[in-house]
Amino acid sequence: MPQIEESRPKYLQVAHHIRDQILRGDFRPGEEVPSERQLAADWSISRPTAARALETLSHQGLVEKRQGSGTYVRGPAVNRRARELYGRARQTGKIYAPGEYAVITSAGWAAAPEHVAQALGLEGRGVRVVRRRRVTMDDSGPIALSTSWFGPEIGERAPKLQVRERIREGTLAYVESATGRQGSYAEDRVCARVATESEAADLALAAGSAVLIVHHVVHDLQDRPLEFAEATYPPGRWAFEQGYPIG
User: What CATH number is given for 78-237 in this structure?
Assistant: First the structure.
């Protein structure tokens, strides 16, 4: 087992270690992860700390606790497009695939809607945050409409977020560089609904078209929200997948 670092919360170190094992495939969907008792013994931590590590993994959507049985790896739905964008940015320094580009339609300070403030862990009615709205395009037309929101601390330390120009290395890579906070994991919430009037206009859709909505939250190594994004995907552009055992 890795050694506990006193500078970081113990429960997060344990949770991140198990998370990495799950993402590598060391633990497969449906397999049991170590129990509180086993984690406490292996890491020389208290049972409450071990329980908090498992609760963190559950909050991240990676595991589920089964009463009287144990804690097991879930088969979470994955936003494939988001995963591919992050992977491409890490490997090549470019966020978009050949033939794709983004048009930044607005950028600057704005009052956070209630659901945005909640996602970013902010308190106070109408707290000001930085908002960036973009339409991603290719030769066939719009691929997605997305709005990213950043808390006031990040907005102050990453001034490019307020400018209506592309950030070529990718927004997350820039935020990491500007703030020293590294992205650790992301959570997606997915639903479908009818496009609003403005969404239909931006995506060149007929009124009443169905769209897929993804609420995407990126967390740093200390489990603090870095970015909240709301993405709108038109029909034919949906790229989501799920894997699960059938045996």
Answer: 3.40.1410.10
